[in-house]
Amino acid sequence: MASIIKANELQDFGGNSIITSDGAGNVTVNAAAMKNTPAFEARVSVDQSISHNTATKVQCGDETFDTDGYYDNVTNYRFTPLVAGKYYFYFGLKGFAGGSDPDGVRFMIIKPYKNGSLVRDYDSVDTDPNELRTGVVTASAVIELNGSTDYLEFYATVYAQNLSSTGVQILENATYFGAHRIGS
User: Fold this and answer.
1) 3-state secondary structure (DSSP) of residue 32
2) What is the pLDDT of residues 63-77, one digit of tens each?
3) Which structural domains are found in the chain, ordered by start?
4) pTM for the full predicted model
5) What's 93-121 look like in SS3?
6) Are 140 and 90 contacting, i.e. CB atoms less than 8 angstroms apart?
7) 126: pLDDT confidence band, cut at 50, 70 and 90?
8) Residue 15 CB: number of other CB atoms within 10 A?
9) CA distances, 152 to each of 76, 82, 106 (Å)
10) Positive or negative torsion for Cα 129, 134, 139, 143
11) Which of 33, 43, 50, 98 has the fewest Cβ atoms within 10 angstroms?
């Protein structure tokens, strides 16, 4: 035997609204612990020149969204959420080594740093001896942050087979950094 419960609001025993519905199937989560926030995503807005084979902070200055204002897209390019929990982070890196062949990207590494220390490396496939002028690598991680002082930054390394006068760059719009809280 099946049962149907109709309600426009679900409350806890203290009378606090947990979930509400507008009657048209649109549900709003009101309990902070159930939301996937804070959350943000930012992209590199202008090609960023970097040194060959050197870990460099990626300057994602163009925010797609930032639910609580915890991502610094101007000065430090870091996420410092003031809500403790486990966060799902994702990264995308598009590197470029200009000039003519064989000035190609040989490999790239995504390096998330927590509080100034490397969490782990996410490496791309080594393309040697058939270097590409551009390459893309993506990564994701679940990292716990304390909600007061912990922060996460996105560093990257691009290794070019041969360097030209154009140098190595992290390309705009295709390089991004984001996160959302997944639980306590």
Assistant:
1) helix
2) 999 999 999 999 999
3) 1-34 (no CATH), 35-183 (2.60.120.40)
4) 0.82
5) EEEEECCCCCCCEEEEEEEEEECCEECCC
6) yes
7) low
8) 6
9) 10, 12, 27
10) positive
11) 33
The contacts of residue 149 (CB under 8 Å, 6+ apart) are: 80, 115
**Contact at 8 Å (CB) between 128 and 161?**
yes
As a whole number of angstroms, the distance between CA 56 and CA 93 comes to: 12
95 - beta bridge partners?
135, 170
Q: What is the SS3 assignment for 64-78? A: EEECCCCEECCCCCE
Nearest to 59 by CA among 140, 153, 164: 153
Phi, psi torsion values for 111, nearest 5 degrees: -130, 95
Distance CA 169, CA 164 (A): 12
Give the 3-state secondary structure of residue 182.
Answer: strand
Which whole-number Å values give the CA distances from 49 to 24, 152, 172, 184, in the listed order? 50, 22, 11, 38
Q: What is the DSSP string of 130-152?
A: S-BSEEEEEEEEEEEE-SSS--E
Higher-confidence residue of 83 and 29: namely 83
